[in-house]
Every structure is written in C-alpha cells, then in structure tokens.
Amino acid sequence: MNEASDSRVGTFRRQLEKIILDKHEDTMSKMGAILASGILDAGALAFSPTAFIGLNYDLKVPKFEFISNAKPSLFEYPKPTTVPTMASAVKLPTAVLSTSVKAKARAKKEAEQKASLEKAAGAESSPAATKCWKRKSI
User: Region Disordered: start and end of each range (predicted)?
Assistant: First the structure.
C-alpha cells in the first residue's frame, strides 16, 4: 500500500521507520515494526493483482494488449529506509583510567625517592650512606 491509495499509510510508515531506526527502542518492538513494514510493502505487491497471465487452448501464451488507467504511483515500490548520518565529527576526550593515574603517580613518587637517595648518597660519600633500600613491588 502507498500514500496514493490511503492517506494514513504515510504516517504509519513514518512511525514504523522511527521505531526501526531508534537505537533505544526495545528489540521486540523493532522486530514487530520490521514485520509490519514488510507486510505493508507486500500488501501493495502480492495481495493485490499486479499481473495478467493467460493461455490459449494449446497452452501457449497469446498476444495481449492491456491498458490500465491507474496512476503508475499506485504500483511504485516504497522508498528504502536510510540510516541518518552524523556529519559532525566531534573529538571526545580520551578516558583516563584510575589505575593508570595511580600507576603514573606511583612511578613519579619512586623516581623522586630514587633521585633524593642518589642526591643524599652523592653528598655523603660514606659506605653506610650508599646502602639503598628498594621497596618490593607487587
């Protein structure tokens, strides 16, 4: 069916398309909308006569002339649905995990401690001062 045969078809088809394209819609609702749009499309093609077939007594196809006064828009295929494309390419900030922040802070702290120990060891050149304790990391 199309809008030429019934004016309510267009609004119903747009409602089905909205349900199909909405990513927050329930899966069963989308499935029902897809089936409904298929049945709506089939109603224009398969459930109404769209072909004229005939045979003669020898089971051969005779030459036919068929004139239809109906508008061609009555037999048009429905327009395919298209997914709307987003033209704006917004660069979002990269997510920083709390574990990576903690690891960087820990590494910075250890580097500062190591630098301060080396500085203290350089100031005092006694053998007792050069002893360095390392913290065991897990």
Answer: 112-138
CA distance 28 to 16: 13
* 38, 47 contact by CB (below 8 A): no
100-113 burial, b if ≥16 CB within 10 A, otherwise e?
Answer: eeeeeeeeeeeeee
Contact 43, 1 (CB under 8 A): yes
Return d(Cα 135, Cα 138) in angstroms, integer.
10
Q: CA triplet 14, 18, 23: central angle to 5 degrees?
A: 165
Q: Cβ distance 74 to 6 under 8 Å?
A: no
- For 10-23, write each residue's pLDDT tens digit: 888 889 999 999 98
Report residue 136 as tokens.
Answer: 């065991």
